[in-house]
Write a structure and sequence with these properties.
By secondary structure, the chain is mainly α. It contains 6 helices and no strands.
């Protein structure tokens, strides 16, 4: 193995760590915006609404992180910082969009999304709206990064 290959392996682990950390923050954002324990709702109760909400949030963070990595300079340190900053901005914008949807819709949006999405239940239509907002914002942030 040459030095270039070792550097690429190290960079992959470094970017992977930043991506995992940002996805953990995305998970916490969903946890804070919805009632109950997210892990229990998804893995124990089979809550489809909670699963959709988390899946799209994580995918959206992944889009932003991937774009930040692809467009980053050859300088690993600067690339990692860019990735963390733009990933964080994406999560903040997704939370803001969620809160704006929450104030413009009846009831509490977080509760609506997870209360009706238990195992065997249909996903509330609002879940698709929030998902589209997250993916749209991910695309916007990804476009801004490039």
């Amino acid at each position: 193995m040459n030095d270039g290959m070792l550097n690429e392996i190290g960079a992959t682990f470094a970017y992977g760590a930043v991506g995992i950390a940002l996805m953990a923050v995305g998970y916490l954002a969903v946890e804070l915006m919805t009632p109950g324990k997210l892990g229990k709702q998804i893995w124990t109760d089979g809550n489809k609404g909670a699963a959709l909400l988390l899946a799209v949030k994580l995918f959206s963070v992944g889009i932003i992180v991937t774009t930040a990595i692809i467009t980053s300079d050859d300088d690993l340190g600067a690339g990692l910082i860019d990735t963390a900053v733009f990933g964080g901005i994406g999560i903040v914008l997704m939370v803001i969009a969620f809160l704006l949807l929450d104030v413009t819709t009846p009831g509490k949006l977080g509760a609506t999304l997870v209360d009706e999405g238990g195992a065997g239940a249909k996903i509330h239509p609002a879940g698709w709206v929030v998902s589209a907002a997250d993916l749209g914002l991910a695309a916007i942030v990804a476009g801004a990064v490039s």
